[in-house]
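Troubleshooting log. The previous structure file for this entry was overwritten by mistake, so regenerating from the original sequence record. Sequence copied from the archived sheet and checked twice against the printout by T.R.
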Amino acid sequence: MNSAQKLSFSENTKLLIIHADDAGLSHSENMATIQSLEKGIVNSYSIMVPCPWFYEMAVYAKNNPQFDNGIHLTLTCEWENYKFGPVLPVSEVPSLVDENGHFFKKRELLRKNASAEDVKKELQAQIEKAIKFGLKPTHIDSHMYSVGSHPAFFKIYKDLGEKFDLPVLINEQLMQMVGLNPKLNIKEGDFLIDKTYVGEFEYFRTGELGEYYNRVLENLTNGINLILIHPAFDDSEMKGVTINHPNFGSEWRQIDFDFFTSEKTMSKLKKNNIELVTWSDIKKRKKAHN
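Regenerated output below.
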């Protein structure tokens, strides 16, 4: 039984969340995310609370409750010249930062250095900051899926979903991507997204990222599916943020924006009998079944 059936959707229903990660990262990311929601087929996004442009996106989220918005729990900062760190004072979560007080660039460094206590304090503080601002998050997910870098962090992630009564993005493909064993870390009662799709660098390198998204839509399977994208503009700001980082860089993010705001892509949903679903829909149905 797939996750859609568990929520009483028909067995043959192809459900899809088109989700924009990294809102709050930059002004360019925010503007592209907003246009993707208003003019495209993106129907979900999540905000990085520790980032400098959080405020702009949070104001938009407050003023536009019709769009699903989650909290993109953040424990890593992968960029070369663009840095950010915890929302808590560094002295309260010292194991989460490098010698300059910024998040580590890689999940491996987080796994090696971070204490579960500090992870819990910081992730809870990010959620609380968003709620205090007036946001009403629809779910929580994770930047670079760094919550999966250690089983203890993953348990904290799930526990926070329960504590704040928020659906949590749990998916086997994402767990495998970060080296977390699904068999050992998915427990009875966990709600799973059946299939998650994220573009790979090889598709971008060969100019086939749009083709990859086309294939996903043409071959979508029954159940609850999620396409993770990162819309932004290939402008000077994003080029500065993503310098020397073509993987999910500014050019890649422009392709994401262009593809998911095109009328041609919109027509593919109808053609392939794909129904868009939101985290809000999932939460309502979950409540009805409990």
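The first strand starts at residue 14 and ends at 23. Archived copy saved in two places this time.
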